[in-house]
Design brief:
The protein has ten helices and 14 strands. With 343 residues, the protein is an alpha/beta fold.
């Protein structure tokens, strides 16, 4: 039986892990659907914020990961319209799936080259059109969208939204499009080893797995912990890459001033496949982010039996009533209250 071939454009893909949610979303999608479809992925040959190519791939060639998945890792020297045009022309595919909005080489140029194609084109906005996404570089983003709308670049394009709120955001920002398809992201396929039983004794363990960044709320979590009084030993381990050293210095200043019973350790980045099992060693997952389109690490915490303490700016709502965590307003003392209730 002929399996339809999906041509995927994404800035970063496996074995890269530093770019966060989108690579996880696509990897999970492929893991669930590769028995029904073949995937042809076009991506960079470097990880996020890295200059050296991956050591275990061939750049500018199709790398066959398995029977259903091949990846074309493009070198920085070949990131241009001519190369991508030739690559598309030489690739046999049925549907194109473009991830993101603003990437020049993995969204803008592919959309431009494919805009008049007779094949279905699907663009995953990946939360980039949600209102909170415009808190960073709003003028630049709005100007770009105005140009795309003026020239009706998306008028034959379908969009993928992960929920109805994102669908509304896409409808608000894109003037003309063919359709919006709503389908949630898929979870990681996990071979469970069974959940560990946790009990809070003389200490309570918190964890975050995310970029150390303002939008992920690292400093917000630390400031909240500084306001929590407890006789218990509180351990907070932070996993994830640091890109903004100035921001991390602010975090370190708060860490240095924490009470003696609060121990914070930065644990560095972690391989994605290990995350579900690391989470089982903690009592609570904490990530008071400024906004999440989905939140893969939140879902993985749920799957690992780890209650979460997050903001109310994610799709995960009414967590306290469901007895699986807290979704806190960042405009009040909700986060401090949740931490006190957890402890």
């Amino acid at each position: 039986m002929h399996k339809k071939k999906i041509l995927v454009f994404i800035d970063w893909y496996l074995p890269g892990t530093r770019s966060g949610g989108p690579v996880r979303s696509v990897a999970n999608l492929i893991a669930h659907l590769n028995e029904e479809f073949q995937f042809l992925i076009v991506t960079r040959d470097t990880d996020y914020c890295e200059k050296d190519p991956y050591t275990n791939v061939q750049s500018n060639k199709w790398n066959k990961l398995d029977e259903q998945v091949s990846v074309h890792y493009v070198s920085s020297q070949n990131l241009n319209k001519k190369y991508l045009k030739e690559l598309i022309a030489s690739t046999n595919f049925d549907t194109a799936y473009i991830n993101g909005i603003y990437s020049l080489y993995f969204s803008v140029i592919p959309v431009w080259l494919l805009r008049n194609s007779d094949k279905p084109i699907l663009v995953a906005a990946r939360g980039m059109l949600n209102s909170q996404a415009f808190s960073v570089k709003p003028f630049k983003k709005k100007s770009f969208l105005s140009l795309m709308n003026f020239f009706s670049i998306y008028n034959k394009i379908n969009f993928h939204a992960t929920n109805e709120d994102e669908a509304a955001a896409i409808h608000k920002e894109i003037r003309k499009y063919r359709d919006i398809k709503v389908a949630p992201n898929l979870p990681r396929k996990i071979k469970s080893k069974g959940l560990k039983t946790r009990s809070i004794g003389e200490h309570v363990r918190f964890i975050s797995v995310a970029r150390v960044a303002q939008e992920k709320g690292t400093l917000t979590a630390l400031n909240a912990l500084s306001d929590v009084k407890s006789e218990l030993k509180i351990v907070y381990d932070i996993y994830g890459p640091i890109y903004d050293q100035v921001y991390w210095k602010e975090c370190e200043a708060v860490i240095d001033a924490l009470p003696a019973n609060v121990i914070v350790k930065y644990k560095g980045s972690v391989v994605g496949a290990e995350v579900p099992f690391i989470l089982q060693d903690y009592h609570f997952f904490i990530m008071p982010s400024e906004g999440e389109n989905f939140g893969h690490s939140i879902l993985e915490a749920f799957s690992s039996g780890c209650p979460v303490i997050i903001s109310d700016r994610t799709p995960w709502k009414d967590l306290k009533a469901k007895e699986i965590g807290w979704d806190c307003s960042l405009d009040s003392d909700d986060l401090i209250v949740a931490l006190k209730e957890a402890i």
